[in-house]
Amino acid sequence: MVRPKILIASSVHVWNDIRVYYKETLTLAQIGDINLIAVRNDSAHGSIPENVHIFQLPLVESRIRYRGTPITRLRRIGKILVEVLKRDYDLFHFHDPELIAVGWVAKLLGKKVIYDMHEDSLEMFGSRKWLAAPTGRMLGWIVRLLELASIPVFDRIILAAQSIQRTFRSPRCSLVQNYPLRQDRPKPVLRPDNLPLKLVYVGSLSTARGITDLVEAVSQVWSESGRVTLDIFGQMGEMELAHWLRSPAFSGWLHYHGWVPVTELSRCLPEFHVGINPVRDYPNYRHALLTKIFDYAAAGLPVITTDLPGIMGEFGEDGFMASYSSGDIAGLASAIQAFFDEDRRATMAKKALDVSRRYSWDSQAQVLLEIYREILA
Q: Which listed site, 88, 102, 303, 343, has its alpha carbon 20 to 30 Å from 311?
């Protein structure tokens, strides 16, 4: 059987993004030959399969937006368009709404096309800090209309979350959820109460994701007890935060590691006591299940999270989370202090591991492969 040639593209995500590369690209490499074109990332990574070829787009850090200026983004889109026009492939699989027009070009060339929708575009653009509210809302509606118009054109639209499925109910739209990669399940490690409480945050760093709320809350706990540390892993979403996080006031307890590969992250997460999800109550996050919740649970970490309906509806009865109201820094500080109780940590860590067994990328990988078999048949 001839293996299909698959072109995967993102003008926003780094090439070794967890969903783009570690989950979907490596899954699809089982059935096809892959060319992946995405944003440059020089961080260490594992071996790349022989049938996966990486083409890296330039990474230009903007003072305002880490993912680049509009001109940088347009240049990336142009490079992807050139690859679509010149490269030999059977199916074009792209991950960003700004590539919808490129997807239409691929269809005009007679190619199969899959659009992988990570977020609700209408709510995403409406909540962007760097866009004025009316502009963001208008841009969101334009993208939403383009997405709806693309349903009968593209061979499939893949949805990364159930919250998006409320709008995209066509048989041409399939849910492939962002469940965590399977890993050896660690055992919770009980530590004496006199050691610092080790908190961890994983994900993009932005005001909307609650990173400023988190740092201010931990700062309060530190000033009162001196028994807490915070480690942050993730890509900088707002460059002004990079300077703020390096403030000498935080040097005794805050450690920023930047972006790290998922394999390294999986190894180090079990070393912490509690995972934090401080995301603010923005429309784009209100019904979302952020992947960090799955990652924390898989590492046996109890979780402190904002009480958004999507998260609480999915996990609220499982007993491994403590919640607080979005934006309530004092409430977050109080939730952190409650985890000085070692017995509470141990009980909730066990429940986290129990919950994590319900979720695995393996099940979603099979869904993805079945979509490809159907389209390429």
A: 343
Residue at 225: amino acid letter? S
Selection from 307, 332, 321 nearest residue 354 by Cα: 321
User: Percent helix, strand, coil in the chain (nearest 5)?
Assistant: 45, 20, 35
Range of the domain at 289: 197-356
Amino acid at site 376: L
**Structural domain total, the chain:** 2
Of the CA atoms within 13 Å of residue 97, those in its CB half-sphere come to: 21
CA 368 – CA 93 distance, rounded (Å) = 12
For the segment 176-222, what is each residue's pLDDT rounded down to a tens digit?
998 888 765 555 454 545 579 999 999 989 888 999 999 999 999 99
What's the pLDDT score for residue 351? 94
Separation between Cα atoms, residue 295 and residue 183, nearest integer Å? 10
Residue 294 in any domain: the answer is yes
Residue with the two structure tokens 């919950």:
355
For residues 331 and 84, what is the distance between their CA atoms, to the nearest angstrom?
A: 50
Beta strands in 80-196 (DSSP E): 91-94, 112-117, 156-159, 173-175
Residue 174 sits in a domain of what CATH number?
A: 3.40.50.2000
28 and 120: one domain? yes
The verdict on residue 265 lying in a domain is yes
Cα-Cα-Cα-Cα torsion 133, 134, 137, 139, nearest 10 degrees, comes to -110
Q: pLDDT digit string (tens) for 156-173?
A: 999 998 888 888 989 999
Question: How far is residue 130's CA from residue 117's CA, in Å, rounded to a whole number?
Answer: 21
Domain assignment of residue 205, yes or no: yes
Alpha carbons 30 and 344: distance in angstroms, whole number? 43
Quote the CA–CA distance of 45 and 130 in Å, as a whole number. Answer: 32
Q: Per the structure block, which two tokens stand in for 129?
A: 């800090």
261, part of any domain: yes
**CA 352 to chain centroid:** 20
Looking at mean pLDDT, say which of 40-44, 49-53, 249-253 comes out highest: 49-53
- Two structure tokens written together for 277: 């999800």
